[in-house]
Known about the structure:
The protein is α/β, with parallel strands linked by helices. It is globular and about 85 Å long. The two termini are 29 Å apart.
Amino acid sequence: MGERLAETLAKLDLHTVGDLLRHYPRRHEDRARFARIADVRDGETVTLAGKVTSVENRPTKTRLVLTKVSLDDGSGVATLVWFNQWRMKQVFEKLHGKRVVAYGKVARGFASVEVSQPEWEALDDGGDGGLSVGRIVPIYAATEGIGQGRLRSIIHGAVERFAGDVPEALPPALRGERGLPEIGDALRDIHFPPDLASLENARRRLVFEELLTMQLLLAGRKASAREARGLAFADTDGPVAELAGALPFALTNAQRRVIGEVAADMGAPHVMNRLLQGDVGSGKTAVAMAAMLIAARNGYQAALMAPTEILAEQHLRGVRGTLEDLGIRVDLLTGSRPAREKAAVRARVQSGETGVVVGTHALIQEGVAFARLGLAVVDEQHRFGVLQRAALGDKGARPDMLVMTATPIPRTLTLTVYGDLDVSVLDELPPGRKPVRTHWKRGKEKAQVYEGVRKLLAEGRQAYVVCPLVEESEKLQARAATELAAHLAQHVFPEFEVGLLHGQLGADAKEDVMRRFRDGTLHVLVATTVIEVGVDVPNAAVMVIEDADRFGLAQLHQLRGRVGRGAHASFCVLLADPKTDEGAERMRVLTETNDGFRIAEEDLRLRGPGEFYGTRQSGLPALRIADVLRDVEILKEARQAAFALLAKDPKLARPEHGALRSAIQAKRQDVLLAAAA
Length: 677
Ligand code: ADP
Ligand code: MG
């Protein structure tokens, strides 16, 4: 094809014939029969086809422009409407008298049928020999410069000429048992199905193949981690008992159990690769300290990496308070410490004088070398990519690895995203915690909300106010926080001390603010999401989140976890006037439950699983066709099949598994590219 076209297709990440074949349709439209305009009902989503009979632009009171296009199908006339899309008028004037297909939701009035912002397509432009009408038609992700018709005929050409040449990755036995079509047929039918049953079969096969290769990839990772010979720490019971004796509290049963799981891994000769999930406040740090003490008492060093400086400094205080009493040197390494201090810490880490080093990304930079790194702990792992995790591990010779997260992971995802890790769960909060009571208030009730906060402040409690999320830039976010803090200090809480914390402050300023909030000199802390992870001030009993609907569900749950960490009754107030049903649903879920796992499941349901795959964090290839929520059953089947396959042929070395092996190889490549991006 010509260069121009190739460039346009490259925007869709389509570079090869293979890419075209796997550019699966977003959806299909049954254009064997169109809905009759005379018969459509209000609220229905339909595909209409008709001739363009008139086009006009109309200004609205709010100085927008409405483009109205009349579409006549013989049974009636529908009006297609666009807001402020200046080019539409010109585009449709050229189509006057031509046939157009439109897809969208109908608003039926007394004498009108309107479809707002429809997806549409001119039928006579492609000259694609009947690919676009009279059949089930694929609708693709498209881009500027290429319409559905053109894309359809290009993909049709690729399918006709090459689908039959694609190597079959699924061994015949696997396909046979499940009645799955061959790859050539599946590719043809996913794009241009003769009927809905063939479409469903094609989809089932392609989903199964995608999930099977993903599960094989994960199973392979897990197996090689298990085989990898690592450190076997001789004494685990001693250090665990020693730590339990040194802590100012008794471990919960859950902590005891999880520390046991970690100790068993560390005592065994394979490399530990364990994910520790525990809701905010469940006491993950104590588990990390047990693991670090095991390393130290067996003559090794441990590193704890946190995503922010505030969090690293807080960990330092906690860890130092306990481990230094036991005679272990604990150091801090973050980017913003003075160069002299950093150099000194690096030297102590290299000589082995430092037993435990706590830090940020600074830990994985060049120039940091450990004498004997035996354990790497990564806190709040969702903030780090797989490669960063690996980079910390590479600072030692196969050290054990413990990754901790307070973002509970829905079970469906544990089978996939984290399928290569062993999982421990802290499912119990320390005793005496009072659950945070969460209220949702409208913006107009703000004055009453702040009155309530004032009462708590008068009783000696402290408060967080989280500033509305500004996504555009860190600078604007910082400015918004500064303005909010000034407003609260002058007009709302003049009799109290108001502090300010945001990402643009220098490390010393941040540390200073946190110290004054911790020691009670500051009563109100206005903050951005920098306080989302880990900040721990037990006397802070209330949090107000302004414009809470701008935040995601998991993020709100994290933020809320900053209160309820002491003995006082605690509150979280969400100030929000959500503009969408989905936003209102998020507010409702938070007021109803404190259960992080339920929130994670809801989050997944509301946002869809797309965000978890093909991202840097996931370490997994993007899913092109499978939807792990919808395809849970196929996922389970694929997982079983993957394990059965590897039990028989662990290296997939048999000839009939060659194509499958290459498919996995290709996925592995995708992951590395995504992680490096
Ligand atoms: P997270 O899991 O959110 O990282 P932390 O480890 O920071 O939780 O613990 C939260 C708070 O609970 C800390 O102040 C910690 O000292 C305290 N804590 C942890 N375990 C216990 C326990 N078993 N009993 C009482 N308090 C505990
Ligand atoms: Mg923590």
